[in-house]
Write a structure and sequence with these properties.
The protein is an alpha+beta fold. It has two domains: 39 residues; 151 residues, no CATH class. Helices cover 28% and strands 36% of the residues. Strands 8-2-1-9-10-11 form a six-stranded antiparallel sheet. The chain has a five-stranded antiparallel sheet with strand order 3-7-6-4-5, with no helix packed on it. A hairpin with a 2-residue loop joins strand 6 and strand 7. The chain is extended and about 65 Å long. The chain starts with a helix and ends with a helix.
Length: 196
């Protein structure tokens, strides 16, 4: 499409070639930046353990698992926030080492770890929020990909204790590991297969 656009313009051929090359460099630059940002979070980020309410592989390829975090669906705030706005929450750890979130704010805090969220609803002095899509667990993040989707059976879903280890750096979070019953997800699934 871009190539056809460049051909249709009355620009000398050598200039068209330069414009095409610059366009291709931009196409390569964006994935590189995303990969670089992800690597920085994994390298420099602090590890936070988030309890999970549930998890389910929604897509047909089974390449990621949607995680439903066991965090309050609403937060009190004294700042003026708007629906669909990016806001920030402070992170801390409770006595068991799991993540506690608090203090929704419009600007990133100057100290401590924080995570960017999206405000999805407002109610007087409370906000309702969601985590970004990169807070899913992707199979390609593991050395041994899981070929089948994770779909816990309904009666056992409530019995499984699960948590995700998330690396957090400068407001970005990347799920590094997923644990079910204190085992990495790969080991847990293999043990479940052996029981069948």
């Amino acid at each position: 499409m871009i190539f056809q656009f460049l051909l249709s313009m009355k620009i000398p051929t050598n200039i068209r070639g330069i414009l095409f090359a610059l366009t291709m460099l931009l196409y390569l630059w964006f994935p590189y930046q995303l990969s670089r940002q992800r690597d920085r979070v994994l390298e420099h980020g602090a590890v936070y353990r988030f309890r999970l309410q549930n998890m389910e592989s929604q897509n047909l390829s089974g390449s990621y698992v949607d995680l439903y975090y066991d965090v309050p669906a609403e937060l009190a705030t004294e700042e003026k926030l708007y629906q669909h706005q990016t806001a920030y929450v402070r992170l801390s750890r409770d006595s068991a080492g799991f993540t506690h979130i608090s203090d929704a704010m419009a600007e990133p805090p100057s100290t401590g770890d924080y995570l960017a969220i999206e405000v999805i609803g407002l109610d007087s002095s409370k906000i309702y929020f969601s985590f970004p899509d990169n807070m899913r667990y992707f199979y390609f993040d593991t050395p041994h990909p899981t070929p089948e989707p994770i779909r816990p059976q309904p009666p056992r879903r409530q019995q499984w204790q699960a948590y995700a280890e998330v690396r957090v750096w400068k407001g970005k979070g990347i799920v590094e590991n997923l644990y079910i019953e204190n085992q990495p997800v790969q080991e847990f699934l293999q043990a479940e297969k052996r029981k069948e």
